Amino acid sequence: MKVLLANAPDPTANRNASNCACYPHIGIIQLATATREALGDRVDIRVVDGGISNTETVQQAVRAFAPDLVGVSALTPAYSETLRIAETAKACGAEVVLGDDHAIFFPETILRNRHQIDYVIANDGGEIPFVELVRALLDGTSLSGVSSPAYRHDGRIHLNPAPKYALSLRNTIPDPSFIEDVLDIYADHYRTQFGHLHDHRVRPVTVNNARGCENGYKRCTYCSIADLTVNTSDPRGFWKAIDQYNREHGINLFFEVYDSFTASPRYVDALIDATPPHLKRRIDEGELQLMVYARALGLTKRNNVDKLRRLGVTRATIGLDAADPEMLEAQRKNKTTDETNLEAIRMLNKAGISVHASYIAGAPGERPETPDRTIAGIRQMLGEVELSLVEFSQFIPLPNGPAWDLLVDYERPDSFKSSAEIDGYLTALGITVTREDREEMFARFGDQDLLDIDELGAFWADNFTHISEKYALERIGEVDEMVSAYKVRTGNNVG
Fold first, then answer.
1. How confident is the model over 69-92, as a mean pLDDT?
2. Distances (CA, A) of 76 to 108, 136, 159, 294
3. Residues 6 or more apart in contact with residue 365 via CB below 8 angstroms
4. Are 28 and 7 in contact (CB under 8 A)?
5. Which end of the chain has less Cβ packing within 10 Å, N or C?
6. For residues 442 and 385, is the Cβ–Cβ distance under 8 A?
């Protein structure tokens, strides 16, 4: 079987995000590695990363390879391009399977609405289900025993059970050989944006030896990650990947995309204890470096900043979100305050760890005066500490998060306990949503698998804030100018 795995490029303004095209899409490489290890020469696999090209390039790769199966990683902002790639695959006679967050959110809706999609892997841990699906297709056996797919059979849509998979039991190390010919493209993108932060040539990659967030039980308002359950793999596997990637591919910067590196203190301690001496020496000499996601509140506890330094962390991305207490509360930041944020930044700066600080304009209940406090906080921070990047983005409600409960899933919320809790939350923010408003919201966005990001942003600002979308974008532009004057990079993201 010929299998092509791709991720779709993002057609939105998110293409200007600070990390865009700086790191390989490691998820599809992991699927390719696991499939090859399980099925050997029964499969011929190609990997195409739309993040460093465009949709047309992926489509050309599909036509040239003529695969039997095309798997596409589908995120909400890139879903329109996912469908274009799927159309091309079907025209070439291939079957199509989707995975990743957007597919997990809408498996049955996608199969009802999109003839060009044959299967959806509805599991955040897609490695085992994907291999099982490919094996069943190769052998011509029933899909009833395959974990987690949605598929059509006998005129009906079936959705098999989706168990949680512990990374400690299986977490294949992705093989960068699948993309060896384009690794330098990521390095060039990274060097253009962040090369000034290093005194040597950097070749970056992402690793994912752990998942989850300590705020998962009360996720941030904008968060739409499919599964925030803390799920950690063997620390020895982490260092095995670091060693292998460095020796075989010259990679020396590793972005661990664990949703919050401070979510599991025992895991961090275990990583420190498991560090091989030869890698520890290279970390201490600055030859190997790490980048992580972290939460400000977690960084101020348990000597975590020093632990990051010992692990070789030189860059940290933190969702600071606001410098206004009301907006931090509205974004469900779980006891994080503007003082907590500043303390965390100062601690990282003192440890020599550069900070990628992320903020949001247009959070629930945002008022004309609240961005002033956030902008004042950013100005104070720029005057006190060294930053690698300040990212100020427009709030966009995405499926699976608390914002989606406010917008669409009011009757059956996932992140709020009840509709009554939503009412109380909105009342505290001075927001009233009528029954007619809710009917309009559901008509626009409910039971839909293809969502217009621009429409979502405008509708959100009109109905869930006290500012206009234009005002939010103006304030974002103001911050970009201010930050640039300090010779610090700016960026944006969908969130």
1. 96
2. 16, 28, 21, 23
3. 326, 327, 330, 426, 428, 429, 430, 431, 464, 465, 466
4. yes
5. N
6. no
**Per the structure block, which two tokens stand in for 345?**
């930044």
CA dist., res. 299 & res. 147, Å (int): 37
Residue 410 DSSP symbol: S
Show the beta-strand stretches assigned E in 381-435.
Answer: 389-394
pLDDT digits (tens, 9 = 90+) for 406-456: 999 999 999 999 999 999 999 999 999 999 999 999 999 998 999 999 999
334: its two tokens: 């779980």
Indicate the Cα dihedral angle 448, 453, 459, 462, nearest 10°. 160
First to last CA, the chain: 38
**C-alpha–C-alpha distance, residues 43 and 137, integer Å:** 11
**Angle subtended by helix axes 26-39 and 127-139, to nearest 10:** 40
With CA atoms as reference, report the closest residue to 368 among 448, 247, 284, 461.
461
Cα(69)–Cα(99) distance, rounded to whole angstroms? Answer: 13
Q: Taking the CA atoms of the chain, what radius of gyration do you get in angstroms?
A: 22
Mean pLDDT of the 22-32 span: 94
At residue 57, the 3 state secondary structure works out as helix
Query: Rounded distance, CA 461 to CA 471, Å?
Result: 10
Confidence of residue 10 (pLDDT cuts 50, 70, 90): confident
Tokens linked to 390: 């300040």
Helix or strand (DSSP H, E) at 353: none
At residue 2, the 3 state secondary structure works out as strand
Take residue 239 and report the two structure tokens written for it: 């260092």
What separation in angstroms does the CA of 343 have from each of 236, 301, 310?
Answer: 32, 11, 20
Tell me the residue ranges of DSSP E strands in 377-477.
389-394
Q: What's the CA gap between 400 and 409, in Å, rounded? A: 9
Residue 323, token pair as written in the block: 């410098």
Q: Give the whole-angstrom CA distance, residue 171 versus residue 125.
A: 9
Could you give the maximum distance between any two Cα atoms of the chain, in Å? 65
d(CA 61, CA 412): 42
The CA dihedral of 473, 476, 481, 486, to the nearest 10 degrees, is -170
